[in-house]
Write a structure and sequence with these properties.
Layout (H helix, E strand, L loop, with lengths): L1 E4 L17 H7 L6 E11 L11 E8 L2 E8 L5 E9 L4 E8 L2 E7 L9 E5 L2 E2 L5 E14 L4 E12 L4 E2 L9 E4 L5 E7 L5 E5 L2 E5 L5 E12 L5 E7 L5 E7 L4 E3 L7 E5 L2 E8 L6 E8 L6 H9 L9 H13 L1 H9 L3 H27 L5 H18 L9
Parallel strand pairs: 2-8, 9-12, 10-19
Antiparallel strand pairs: 1-15, 2-5, 3-4, 3-6, 6-7, 10-11, 11-17, 13-16, 14-17, 15-16, 18-23, 19-22, 20-23, 21-22
Helix pairs in contact: 2-3, 4-5, 5-6
Length: 404
C-alpha cells in the first residue's frame, strides 16, 4: 500500500509562495517595525437540523511562514463564540482559522492586512460515515500523453463530488466506509490534488482510498497516474463507485484514438488551439463500469528498450532529457565505434573513446552537484551513479591510451 499526504489546505495556500515574497526582508525589517496587535474573533454555527451544540470546540489560529506554522489555540464558548486577543500582525505571514468538530475539519483564510477584521463565521455540520450521501455530478478522463519508451499512458481525472445532505461525510474505520476510486490495473505515480482540508490517500491494487471529510456542497478532486498498455490496441475498464451525471473522455487527436460502445460516438473539440477527441455521455449509474478502447498506440523501438533498461526510474533533476539522450547514444552507437576501430580508424576511434568517457564523467559531476544541492534523494543518486559507473567500466581502457 502506498500512502501519501495531500497538502492542499485552504489555510496554507500561500505556504510556499511566501518564499518569493521576501524571506530575508522578514528577518531584517520585522525587528525595527512597530508591532501591530489585533483581536480576531468569530462564531461557530451548526447547520445540521437538530445538530449538536458547538460549545467547547478546539479553535486554532494559524500563522504560517516559510519556516512553518505557529499556532494559537482557544476553545469556543457556550454559543460557539471564540476570540484571540493581542495577535501580532506580520505582513509576511498568512493567517487562517480552523475548527475540528466530530472528526471533520473546517477552516478559512483570514486577511489581517487592513488592521481590522469582521467577525469570522465558521459553519460546521454533524457527521456521518455513510458514503451514500456522496455522488458525482461530473467525471472527466483525459488521456494526456503516451510514453512510447516505457509503454505507458499518462491520464488525468477530474471528479466533482457532491454531498447533497446536511451532514459532513467523514471516513469510518472499515474499508467500506472510505471514499474509494478505481484505477486501471498496474497504475503508478498517483498524484492527487484537492481543496478538501486535511486530505490524505492510500493507493491499493485496484484504486485508492481518500481519507477526507466532505462537507455539504460540491468539491473537486483531481488526480493523475500512469498505466501500462500491452500493444497497439488496449481496452481500458474503469469503475465509478459514485456514478456521474455527466462523463467525458478526451484525448489529443495525435496521441491515441479513443472509442467506447458503452458511452457513445466520438466527437471533436478544440481546446487551446489543440484538437481533441471527446466522448460525452449523459451519465452512469452508481457503481457502474465503463470500457474505452484505445488504438494507434506506438510500439517501443530497440533504442527505447535499451533506454528503459538503463533508466527505469524517472530522472527528476536538471536536464533529464539530455541525460537520457546521451545515455541512449552511448549504447546505440557504441558498437558502431567499435566496428570503426576494427576497420583501422584507430585514431578517430580513440578520440571518440575519450569523448565518450569525458561525457560520462561530466554526467557524474552534474549528478553529484544536483545531489549536493538537495534536489535528489540519496537512493536515486546512488542508483543513477551506479548506472553511469557501470557504463564507464564497460568502456575499459583503450589500448595505448593510458586512460583508465
Amino acid at each position: 500500500m502506498v500512502r501519501a499526504a495531500v497538502s492542499r489546505w485552504g489555510l496554507a495556500i500561500f505556504l510556499f509562495a511566501l518564499a518569493s515574497s521576501g524571506a530575508v526582508r522578514y528577518g531584517m525589517e520585522s525587528v525595527s517595525a512597530q508591532v501591530q496587535t489585533l483581536t480576531v474573533e468569530g462564531k461557530i454555527s451548526n447547520a445540521t437540523a437538530g445538530g449538536s451544540e458547538v460549545a467547547g470546540l478546539p479553535v486554532t489560529l494559524h500563522r504560517i511562514s516559510i519556516f512553518g506554522p505557529d499556532d494559537l489555540l482557544t476553545t469556543s464558548g457556550e454559543n460557539g463564540e471564540f476570540r484571540f486577543d493581542d495577535v501580532e500582525f506580520d505582513p509576511e505571514l498568512s493567517y487562517g482559522i480552523s475548527v475540528r468538530y466530530q472528526k471533520a475539519i473546517y477552516g478559512t483564510d483570514i486577511d489581517l492586512s487592513s488592521g481590522s477584521l469582521n467577525s469570522v463565521m465558521i459553519t460546521v455540520f454533524d457527521s456521518t460515515i455513510d458514503d451514500g450521501v456522496i455522488s458525482a455530478s461530473s467525471a472527466s478522463l483525459l488521456f494526456a500523453s503516451v510514453d512510447r519508451t516505457n509503454q505507458t499512458i499518462s491520464a488525468l481525472e477530474i471528479l466533482r463530488l457532491k454531498n447533497s445532505s446536511d451532514r459532513a461525510y467523514v471516513p469510518g474505520n472499515e474499508p467500506m466506509q472510505l471514499l474509494r476510486f478505481g484505477l486501471p490495473v498496474g497504475a503508478t505515480n498517483l498524484q492527487l490534488d484537492t481543496r478538501l482540508i486535511g486530505a490524505d490517500f492510500a493507493q491499493v491494487d485496484l484504486g485508492f482510498a481518500l481519507f477526507a471529510s466532505v462537507p455539504p456542497g460540491e468539491h473537486e478532486i483531481m488526480f493523475s497516474y500512469d498505466f501500462p498498455f500491452p500493444g497497439d490496441e488496449f481496452t481500458l475498464e474503469k469503475s465509478y463507485r459514485y456514478g456521474a451525471n455527466i462523463i467525458r473522455v478526451l484525448a489529443p487527436l495525435e496521441t491515441v484514438a479513443i472509442r467506447s460502445d458503452h458511452l457513445g460516438p466520438v466527437d471533436s473539440v478544440t481546446i487551446g488551439e489543440r484538437p481533441y477527441q471527446i466522448i460525452e455521455s449523459g451519465g452512469i449509474e452508481r457503481g457502474e463500469r465503463i470500457t474505452v478502447q484505445l488504438g494507434g498506440l506506438p510500439a517501443a523501438t530497440a533504442a527505447d528498450r535499451v533506454s528503459r533498461n538503463l533508466d527505469s526510474i524517472r530522472l527528476e533533476y536538471a536536464a533529464p532529457a539530455a541525460l537520457v539522450t546521451l545515455m541512449i547514444g552511448l549504447v546505440v552507437y557504441g558498437g558502431f565505434w567499435k566496428r570503426r576501430r576494427s576497420n583501422g580508424e584507430a585514431s578517430s576511434a580513440y578520440s571518440e573513446h575519450v569523448a565518450e568517457r569525458e561525457t560520462i564523467h561530466q554526467m557524474i559531476a552534474e549528478l553529484q552537484e544536483t545531489f549536493e544541492k538537495g534536489s535528489l534523494q540519496e537512493d536515486d543518486y546512488r542508483r543513477r551513479l551506479a548506472i553511469l559507473n557501470s557504463q564507464l567500466t564497460s568502456l575499459g581502457q583503450y589500448p595505448n591510451s593510458g586512460v583508465l
